[in-house]
């Protein structure tokens, strides 16, 4: 992996990716942030050596470098999931690349279902902690200790200072921003009624199919991390309706302006 990382980093530096400060993963609900960036360089994933390729139809597939709010950022316009057939090492490879390029902070967005029925679709949730239900770890491979501490500490995986800033920004701008626990599952199927009940019992406030692997690797690399979920459906097992992907995307789009405002204001303060 070290050889692959070096090849990829050298390629991106040659393309103009020069010492970014912050990495951003544009999941569902934050795609339009790309329009706020003064783009200096961008490369399609399928042109980057050793990079996976996004296969989800509503995820783009570009790595973008540029300026926003006087910060140099490297942005993943589209992410990877293990339900696409990738390994956890594939999914998190871009985080390792962003760290080698120079980032010190990783910001993440995603779409999630609300397990906590006090949370409503179209609202946002600041991730305060998580539960890994993806069946393995992105650190579970031979040679991981050459890239960072094998037994990565996860007592506080999300940066408390950044989370406090997010809450202040939301309050100032009258944005509903819940705080809660995100459970990450494999997917791509949605959960059964029994699974939603289980998730509530074990302490999850929201559930999705991403983010946790990237956060684990970011902590492994000693990066500051923060993540926000767009709540796109309400997972009430007693009144569960068939999934409507169009409805999920619509709610993500509706929440996008608030998500963009949160991220832009946060970038001013970092």
TrEMBL record:
Sorted alphabetically, which InterPro entries does this protein's record hold?
A: Nucleoside_phosphorylase_d, Nucleoside_phosphorylase_sf, Pur_Nuc_Pase_Ino/Guo-sp, Purine_phosphorylase
Task: Give residue ranges for domain Nucleoside phosphorylase.
Answer: 21-267
- Record key words, sorted: Glycosyltransferase, Transferase
Task: Offer a single GO CC term for the protein.
Answer: cytoplasm
**Pathway the protein contributes to:** Purine metabolism; purine nucleoside salvage
**Which E.C. number(s) belong to this protein?**
2.4.2.1
Broad EC category: transferase
SUPFAM superfamilies hit by this protein:
Purine and uridine phosphorylases
Q: Name one Pfam family in it.
A: PNP_UDP_1
One GO BP annotation is: nucleoside metabolic process
Similarity remark: Belongs to the PNP/MTAP phosphorylase family.
Give a short account of what the protein does: The purine nucleoside phosphorylases catalyze the phosphorolytic breakdown of the N-glycosidic bond in the beta-(deoxy)ribonucleoside molecules, with the formation of the corresponding free purine bases and pentose-1-phosphate.
Which NCBIfam families is this protein grouped with?
Answer: PNPH, PNPH-PUNA-XAPA, PRK08202.1
Q: Which PANTHER family match?
A: METHYLTHIOADENOSINE/PURINE NUCLEOSIDE PHOSPHORYLASE (PTHR11904), PURINE NUCLEOSIDE PHOSPHORYLASE-RELATED (PTHR11904:SF9)
Q: What is the protein's given name?
A: Purine nucleoside phosphorylase
List the taxonomic lineage: Bacteria, Pseudomonadati, Bacteroidota, Flavobacteriia, Flavobacteriales
